[in-house]
Amino acid sequence: MGSVYVFTISIGASNLLSILPIVTSQRTIMYRERFAGMYPSKAHSLAQVIIEIPYIFLEATLFLIISYPAVNLYESAYKVSWYFYDIFCTLLNYKYMGMAIASLSSTYQMASICGSFCITVVNLFSGFLIPQ
Question: Is the pLDDT of residue 120 over 70?
């Protein structure tokens, strides 16, 4: 089970850190279009959130196809679907956490530092490294 933990944390950290430059670079575009009155900022935020769902679905599917047989977990449709749901929600959580951190930070460098701190905190309190 340690390999599933490491896979999930590393893919999640990759998702969190990969979204930071995209959101910070789109911030100036969003400010310009909001100032021009093209559309409200809620529409831009909603579009950013919704557009990630198909990509995360594809990523979770590929992750499931590779990691589930590699770890040799129990093969039933019920367990595979729960594993997929868990991976899908975890990857969405990391991606949305990266979006929130990038939106709340003033620069990309500050967002990267805060993102690394959040990855460390999630890793620490994930429940896998419990002292005996």
Answer: yes
Tally Cβ neighbours within 10 Å of residue 112.
Answer: 19
Instruction: Determine contact, residues 52/92, Cβ cutoff 8 Å.
Output: yes
Distances (CA, A) of 101 to 37, 60, 95, 97, 128: 25, 22, 10, 6, 25
The per-residue pLDDT for range 73-82, each reduced to its tens digit, is 788 889 899 9
> Average of pLDDT values for 24-33?
84
As a whole number, mean pLDDT of residues 51-59 equals 94
Q: Please name which of 55, 85, 83, 88 lies closest in space to residue 69, comparing C-alpha atoms.
A: 83
Amino acid at the residue 48: Q
Cα–Cα distances (Å) from 56 to 51, 72, 131, 132, in that order, read 9, 23, 33, 35
Q: Are 19 and 119 in contact (CB under 8 A)?
A: no
